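Subject: Sanity check before I submit

Could someone independently write out the structure tokens for this chain? I want to compare against mine line by line before I put it in a report. The sequence has 485 residues.
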Amino acid sequence: MKSLYGRQFLLTAGMILISFALLGTSFIALTYRYTIQDTRDSMERNVGRVASFTADAQLRGIGLQNAVYQSYIANIAEISGAVVVITEADGSLVLYADGTGDGGKADQSAGQVPQSVTDTVLKAGSYSGMSTLGGMFPERRFVAGTPITATTTGALTGQSQQIVMGVAYMVAKTSDITELWQAFISIFFFTAVVVLCISFITSSITSLRLTNPLKEIAEATRKFGHGEYEARVRGYERRRDEVGELAEAFNAMADSIAKSEEKRSEFVANISHELKTPMTTIAGFSDGILDGTIPPDKERAALQTISSETRRLSRLVRRMLDLSRLQSAENITAQEQFDVSEVMLRVLVSLENKINARHLDVDTQLPDGAVEVWGDPDAITQVCYNLLDNAIKFSDEGSTMGISITTKGGKAHVAVRNQGQTIPPDELAMIFDRFHKSDKSRSVDRDGVGLGLYIVKTILNNHKENISVTSQDGVTEFVFTLTLA
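---
Independent answer below. Compare away.
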């Protein structure tokens, strides 16, 4: 299997190579055409000047063997870096001026330019192409030619006419023409190689920065799968790109799973403790009755203890079933409109015996009319029952328990408060955890199983509502919200 690094590097390198190939081809073609055209235009201009100067000199009676004339032509040839050839109209060689420095390579003995070239120049008025000029040069060179013409006026007729006095040629080696083009190409290829090397190094580093974190995350995932829940991806906290987000998301997921595993282990330990205590009591008293350790006059008390512990087990199992139903993925909270004041009063009446047993006064502050809210009436009834039952259980005997409902910002705020022992601040954050009991000795809440407030929190979470708790100066208050209808 090809790695992501290899694919990423090859893709980037391939795109860079293709881009440079297309750019290089276009650059080479354009610079070649420009160089050739520029050289051709320059030679045609120069040979035109030579022809014009030669015609003017002859009209003034200056011969082609004149030293001043030949010096001028030699200077033009040297400046142009080419060979200037002057011939008669029939192609006979008259003047040869070499500005390339290798005139020895030319064969001037022939003394004649091919008639085909001469005829082309005379008929078309100019000539440009590749030729050896009839073997005058050992290799084909670029040749630009133009006729040497002069305009004269007839003495008798008075009419002007053009006469051909000869042909001027300018000859340049192809190496001279392509020298500038080759310099352009050398600079381009040098620049291309440097840019390609930098691009490949950058692409390699970029690909590594992309793939290394993925490898580390994969390795951390494998460790996590083998039970190493402390495995995390480190070193990418300062990255503000997708890799940093991925590492952060993985660590957040790992933290969540680790916490879930911790809670699962704690849950198993708590449920084991809750089951072991009543089962040990039941087994001990049952064995005592069976083997006669417990005298007959104390058997009734033992059976009452067995019955109490059995009911406690039953409540625990029932609460566990309720919790399982609430946490089930198939659990969908029904949305109905109902009066939360009526629900609260109905639950309060059902707990009248417990309230009277602890000689509590109830301070109710409910609105005069109905407080219609949205939610599951049965689930909210269980919330109210758990909170009121909890308040009764932990109220000081003979104290006052308060109930109030207020509306604000589209929400109904339901409050249940009691007077009793203050909950320590460090335990308030854990009050809604499973099996949490503020009384570590479990003597005050002997009948509880530590799931009531957790079920309350779960139901309200399903309703997307909030619950808060405060406990100070001997007053503990729970407040939860419901959406007004």
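---
OP: Matches mine. For the report I'm noting this point. Residues 293 and 472 are 49 Å apart (CA to CA).
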